[in-house]
Please model this.
Amino acid sequence: MRLKYKQSIIVALIVSFLIIFQTGIFAQDSITDSRRNAIVTSVEKASPAVVTINVLEYQATDLDPFFELFGFPIRQRPISSIGSGFIFRPEGYILTNYHVLENASKIASVTLSSGEKLDIEIVGADPRTDIAVLKATGKIFPYIPLGDSENLYIGEWVIAIGNPFGSLMKDPRPTVSVGVVSAVHRKVNRNISSDTRLYQDLIQTDAAINPGNSGGPLVNSQGEVIGINTMIFSKTGGYQGLSFAIPINRAKRVADELIKYGERRDPWFGFKAESLDSIDPRLLRELGIPIKKGVFVTRILKESPAYQAGLRPGDVVVEINKQPVEDPLDVDFINWDMFIGDPVEMKIFREGKTLTINFTVQEVNSE
Model:
């Protein structure tokens, strides 16, 4: 009887030990699972296709007038800068910002996160939308799938991947910063950005972006690119919580044009206008224009799509594709964001009436 009692105790101890052991394993698995979250898997999925772009700009150094007098050659010093990019097709096509390459005398290197240097050719660039496409040659490459920048939730997690301050790090491996989508369809004030660059309809995020991040991907929690990290608002030159990315839906359409045609085909409406704010109110009253916001058409080409649709000098354009128009640059920005064959719905004011005209975008100087 006593032997059976001892055996029961031993069995109970073994069972208790196994339960504790199993509980420990399950707890460890739970901790591991909590660490390997959606952000981690997204980074693992995207990072192999992120590249570091090193460019050189040669600047002339000051030369003593004495040496200039005798025709000594002007010396040039190389200035190195770094940006980021990402492979978005297995054939090796790379998306980045145009401003990463804008002042470059040459591309010194394009490097994968593994350290492998790529043979690169420039496919094309579009300064207005700040998009450039490169192509790596030689094999099939890892790539990041493109998501849908029109299907974003305010507050959803996003990851900025790139090589900030890469020239200081001397390391091709990309770094990661995490934030949320702060806002969409953001328009940057033209006085802050540029009259010749389409920094409109941007994604705003609080993921940290610094010099060197430009051109890198903004990735969602599924490992898809939803934007190209492009600019920040800062009083110091460093990150201060306001970062902006070009929506990938626009970038993809520009990239498709560059790959197919080697350039971005130039869309046009075919008219020039002035802001109503810049016209003498007495002239507006004489012309019978009671509205305060819009642009006054001053010139229009007869072969333009807008003229063929019925737009005439003296008309006031108040809205294009449901976007309000208050300045001639509003017209330019809407125009630059469109592609050949896109539909245009233009609301105009003429002789006391509001009219709507429709046409499709055509290429400049197209036959």
About this structure: DSSP finds nine helices and 20 strands in the chain. The two ends are 107 Å apart (CA to CA).
